[in-house]
Task: inverse folding
């Protein structure tokens, strides 16, 4: 289950109580004290709705996450990685990525990657590749996201509520493809290799969420940013269609 | 805010604008003191401030006329 934000619950309860109570007291009961109680509830409720549950400022979190990408960029640069990464379902609670270096991996070979030793450079079925832990991996783990969460709910919870990286998320499943639209994203990366192989930070985090929720390897296909939105396409592997 | 409410109620205050004005003062005092993080623009603060301006303007007009 997704951990629900207690501030939102408190805010909604206070607002739902406060608005009708204030209106009823003012127009029907004609009682100023009761009206003031309703008014106070509305103000407290609206304030509670605006308070995020995470005590760490989002700007600091974003800076740390972007900083964590530096090492991944250096690694990808060193090995001249240019192919799109596969996000794998969690092992020991962490999603990890396989970035092929010497050619793409056939769908049927992907399950063999799951059995490969977790190390920086690995080889599966003749394909050399890098295994990296993207910053989104830890974010998803620390957000205590449940594996049985719905796709869009999970993306909303991690990217909007927990990380505050984007303002809204939409996800559409079409065959083995999942198209994710991130609106008004506040987290980007200037690292070209990370962007090319894993996607920008918000997209990469979305990839981690998808691997976590679907329980299948998910390949990052492409991302396209226009204005304040990013549309990213992922391919779910092992669904019998690749 | 609840302390304000109870105090004014105990004093028998019957003007809603007095409650509203003191809620506004209490809200901004608490905000300045605790500096809470917000997801978005401070909507309650803006609404309270606009209402407070309206009440003050009405009072000023009342006094002038």
Result:
């Amino acid at each position: 289950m997704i951990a629900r934000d207690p501030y939102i619950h408190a805010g909604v309860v206070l607002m739902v109580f406060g608005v009708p109570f204030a209106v009823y007291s003012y127009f029907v009961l004609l009682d100023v004290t009761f009206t003031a109680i309703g008014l106070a509830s509305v103000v407290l409720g609206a304030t509670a709705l605006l308070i995020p549950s995470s005590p760490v400022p989002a700007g600091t979190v974003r800076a740390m996450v972007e900083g964590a990408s530096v090492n991944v960029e250096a690694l990808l640069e060193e090995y001249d990685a240019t192919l799109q990464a596969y996000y794998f379902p969690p092992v020991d609670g962490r999603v990890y990525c396989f970035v092929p270096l010497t050619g793409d991996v056939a769908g049927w070979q992907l399950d063999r990657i799951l059995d490969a030793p977790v190390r920086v450079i690995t080889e599966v079925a003749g394909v050399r590749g890098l295994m990296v832990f993207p910053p989104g991996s830890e974010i998803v783990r620390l957000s205590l996201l449940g594996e049985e969460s719905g796709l869009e709910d999970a993306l909303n919870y991690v990217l909007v509520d927990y990380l505050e990286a984007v303002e809204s998320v939409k996800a559409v499943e079409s065959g083995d493809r999942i198209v994710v639209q991130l609106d008004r994203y506040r987290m980007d990366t200037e690292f070209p290799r990370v962007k090319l192989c894993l996607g920008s930070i918000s997209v990469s985090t979305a990839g981690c969420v998808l691997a976590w929720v679907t329980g299948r390897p998910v390949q990052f296909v492409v991302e396209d940013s226009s204005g304040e939105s990013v549309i990213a396409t992922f391919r779910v592997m092992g669904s019998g269609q690749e | 805010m609840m302390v304000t409410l109870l105090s004014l109620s105990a004093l028998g205050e019957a003007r809603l604008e007095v409650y509203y004005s003191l809620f506004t003062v209490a809200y901004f005092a608490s905000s300045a003191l605790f500096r809470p993080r917000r997801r978005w623009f401070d909507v309650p603060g803006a609404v309270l401030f606009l209402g407070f301006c309206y009440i003050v303007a009405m009072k000023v007009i009342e006094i002038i006329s």
Notes: The mean pLDDT of chain B is 89. The interface with chain A takes residues 1-2, 4-5, 8-9, 13-16, 19-20, 23, 27, 36-40, 42-44, 47-48 of chain B (CB under 8 Å). The helical segments of chain B are 2-10, 16-34, 43-64. The longest helix of chain B spans residues 43-64.
